[in-house]
Specification:
Layout lengths: L1 E4 L5 H9 L3 E4 H4 L5 H10 L3 E4 L3 H7 L8 E5 L8 H10 L9 E6 L2 E6 L1 H4 L3
Parallel strand pairs: 1-2, 1-3, 3-4, 4-5
Antiparallel strand pairs: 5-6
Helix pairs in contact: 1-5
C-alpha cells in the first residue's frame, strides 16, 4: 500500500508509516506549497492513497469531478500529538474489515466512516 501525505499531515506520522514498511511520500518534504488539485493529481498518477486533514479533496472529486486517487483518508480531528494520525492509521490497517481502496475514509476519534469513490474513479 502506497500513501501520499498532504502538506498538513505531520512528518512524525509519515515516519511512523515508513517504519511500519509503508511506501509513504510526503508533500512537506518534496513539494511544499503544491496546490490541492496538483496534490490530488499526483496521488492519482502515482496510485497512492491520499492522507490529509483537508476536506477540500472530497469537494474536488465529488463537486468538480476531478479524477480520484485509489483512496483518500480524511483525518477529521485535531491530533493530540504529531504521531497520533500515523498510529491511528496503523491500527485501522490492522482491521481486516476495513479497506481503503476505492473509498473516502473519514477518520475521527472513536469513529470511522467510508464513502465509495468508485463512480468517480471510473468516470461514471
Amino acid at each position: 500500500m502506497r500513501f501520499l501525505a498532504d502538506e498538513n499531515f505531520p512528518l512524525a506520522s509519515v515516519n511512523i508509516l515508513r517504519q511500519a514498511g509503508y511506501d509513504t511520500a510526503a508533500i512537506i518534504q518534496d513539494s511544499p506549497g503544491l496546490k490541492d488539485a496538483e496534490v490530488l493529481g499526483r496521488a492519482v498518477q502515482e496510485q497512492r492513497i491520499l492522507l490529509s486533514f483537508d476536506r477540500c479533496y472530497g469537494e474536488l472529486i465529488y463537486r468538480w469531478k476531478k479524477p480520484a486517487p485509489i483512496g483518500i483518508v480524511y483525518f477529521r480531528f485535531i491530533p493530540r500529538t504529531p504521531e497520533e494520525p500515523g498510529e491511528l492509521l496503523l491500527r485501522l490497517l490492522k482491521q481486516s474489515a476495513i479497506s481503503l481502496e476505492g473509498k473516502l475514509t473519514i477518520l475521527e476519534h472513536g469513529r470511522v466512516r467510508q464513502r465509495p469513490i468508485y463512480k468517480t474513479l471510473h468516470g461514471e
